[in-house]
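Board notes (copied after class):
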Amino acid sequence: MADFTLYGWEPSLSPHKLPLFHALQRSDRFTNITYIAQEDLQAERKLQGWSRGSTADLNVLIAPSVREIADIVASSPIDAIHIFSGTRWHPVLVNGLKEVLAQGRRFGIMQEPRASGGFRGLLRFLHSWASEHRIRTTADFVLAIGRNGPSWFRRTGYRSERIFPFAYFVEKSADEIDLHAPTDEVIVSYLGRLEAPKGVKEMLELRRTIGRPSRFIVAGRGPLASLVMASAEQPGPHLQYLGPIPMTETRRFLRSADIICAPSLTDDDGWCAVIGEALLEGTAVITTKMAGASVCIEQDRRLGRVLVRPDAASMGKAVDDIVGSGILDVDCRKWRREWAGRRLNDEAGAKALISVLDHIYNGLPRPKPFYSR
């Protein structure tokens, strides 16, 4: 089978994208991988505790000029594949796409759907239709991230046969870990930005109304941090607020919980990486249809619950349902780790991408969605 040369065009160095490129670099199917980004890890993400890790094994270019971008494309092999994480706003993406189109190079898109709710969502929909004609008619493939990714691209005119479900594939979990065994007190945790669209207020309301022995642990930063701290002083199950935690500690944090709550209220949550990370640690998840990664939770009730209504009553019912179903025991935690390890870690992502490229360029059968393998 032919080897591939890959150029990844990114808004920034992303700890949720880099693991995929590291795994591709380790694969014997690629002769060269170049990662081109507009900027390093964003300052706001550093404040959240994010870190990008080493890029020593990758050829990384940061903020190339317009002239340098033209030279990168011109000097790339004629059969190289260029993958763009978006099509607008960032000079690296805009100018890189311009050159790839002008020089007739092979390319695809890897992107979450644009937020489609309300009047602004309608404007984004119309904007995509008006501005992406040449891209949607010439892109070889679209790696559509999350539950709503494929439908967004179909609705905005991209060809169904070129659209493939995709995800943010993160680093695999440690091979040997001590799994958290359930106790009489269920541990419900939250990790992420503390803001209203993430369902933080609803989760705090759950704490005040939950009827079973429980403990809540919250990590992250954002405009609702003061509300979380105030809630900890109010009657109800114990609530511990940790503030932002380093990415090096997030897996331990997720592993220590019985249930991770990700009650997103916005379809701007194109993926929600904490869901995949939680599953890789064997932790059950409660989320909503708004979160892109909810498409994974729907595959099996041993993974968690997807809420139609992300209110405290629905979350409380989901907690009771999960506890009553017995899926918090160690055997089910092991099963979730294995399930996610076959579908959601960096190596699984590399296999998923290679299968798409083999289908498009080498005529192999269309691959199954990553979550159904």
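Comment from the instructor: The first strand starts at residue 4 and ends at 12. The mean pLDDT is 92.
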